[in-house]
Amino acid sequence: MATINGRTLWPEYLIDFAWAIAFGVVFQYFSIAPMANGYGPTVIYRALKADVLSLVFFEIGLFGWMAIFQVAIFNWKLEMDTVTYWWMMQIGMFCGHWTAVPINYWLIKTNVKEPCA
């Protein structure tokens, strides 16, 4: 198992972030392509522009909360197979949502992203 300073949280952040970017760009690509009537590098670039900043800000909230609860609240003792861990993750998702709201608002205002509704 990969560790940094004896902890797996930090490599998990890197792996989770890479997967989030990969899935996010794929989902954005297949959302944008039909609206743009085309597929290819231009649409990939638009998907990257629409999703990377949004995901960075979401992950700041989520990963920030994960660090707080793992390091400060539970002193590295909270295991993934507990209900409390997954409850803390739900709070992290909520935090991630709210740290992503301002950047998504800006991305929509500047026409980088399309509003959903």
TrEMBL record:
Domain called DUF4396: residue spans: 3-113
Domain of life (superkingdom): Eukaryota
UniProtKB keywords: Membrane, Transmembrane, Transmembrane helix
One Pfam entry name: DUF4396
Annotated InterPro entries: DUF4396 (IPR025509)
Signal peptide start and end residues: none
Transmembrane segments: 17-40, 52-73, 85-108
UniProt-recorded name of the protein: DUF4396 domain-containing protein
Protein's organism: Saxophila tyrrhenica
